């Protein structure tokens, strides 16, 4: 199951780190506690709509951008969730690849 | 300020009504209380990530679709928030529109 708070949290963290800013700087600008912001970024706490807006404001990142990036990530995760057989399929080769024998083909050979 | 829970709530309600389903049907399918779903739809309660997933499942609507629709709505609201002077500007015309006079233009007239 896709957990939205984890996707949004990692998106917030990615943007903060991309700006080279610390948890302390952004939490102070957003007027939330450092511990709260850290928990939100790690997907351990649901951010209320008001605090999410405040964090977006502190990052100077529009909420719509965070949401559309999250939507793209969630879409990828949903595709993985619905196609487990493809995700977990591995091609199995013998350890000694040279030992594979192929049938010989001769030009003009009849089947 | 854009309140995300209101945008997501109205998106959930729009989809439920589009499917012609009642609060009772969807809350039962999602295994949440009717009152809780009603509050989430009206933007009065934050849905936890787990319950949002359950509601999306009950609506057979991928979370990614809800998020990208929400992102579009939020983008429109953000543009309104940052351009209040354009949103509230009205063109004022005199009541008797026929009384407006225009300068006459003659072909070949010099400026």
Explained architecture:
The structure is a homodimer of 111-residue chains. Chain A contains 6 helices and no strands. By secondary structure, the first copy, chain A, is mostly helical. Chain A has a single domain (4-87), classed as Orthogonal Bundle (434 Repressor (Amino-terminal Domain)). The mean pLDDT of chain A is 87. The A-B interface holds A 1-6, 46, 48-50, 52-53, 62-65, 67-68, 70-72, 74-75, 78 and B 1-6, 46, 48-50, 52-53, 62-65, 67-68, 70-72, 74-75, 78.
Secondary structure tally: strands of chain A = 0
Largest sheet geometry of chain A: none
Q: What's the gyration radius of chain A in Å?
A: 24 Å
Computed structural class of chain A: mainly alpha
In a nutshell, what does this entry contain?
2 copies of one chain form a homodimer. Chain A is mainly α and 111 residues long. Chain A is built from 6 helices and no strands.
What is the topological layout?
Two copies of one chain form a homodimer.
Chain A: H1 4-18, H2 23-30, H3 34-41, H4 49-59, H5 63-82, H6 84-87
Helix pairs in contact in A: 1-5, 2-3, 2-4
List keywords for this structure.
homodimer, 111 residues, elongated, 6 helices
């Amino acid at each position: 199951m896709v957990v939205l708070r984890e996707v949004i949290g990692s998106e917030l963290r990615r943007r903060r780190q991309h700006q080279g800013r610390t948890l302390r700087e952004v939490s102070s600008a957003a007027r939330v506690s450092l511990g709260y912001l850290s928990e939100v970024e790690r997907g351990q706490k649901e951010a209320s709509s008001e605090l999410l807006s405040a964090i977006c404001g502190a990052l100077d990142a529009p909420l719509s951008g965070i949401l559309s990036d999250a939507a793209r990530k969630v879409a990828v995760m949903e595709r993985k969730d619905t196609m487990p057989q493809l995700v977990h399929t591995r091609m199995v080769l013998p350890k000694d690849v040279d030992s594979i024998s192929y049938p010989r083909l001769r030009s003009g050979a009849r089947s």
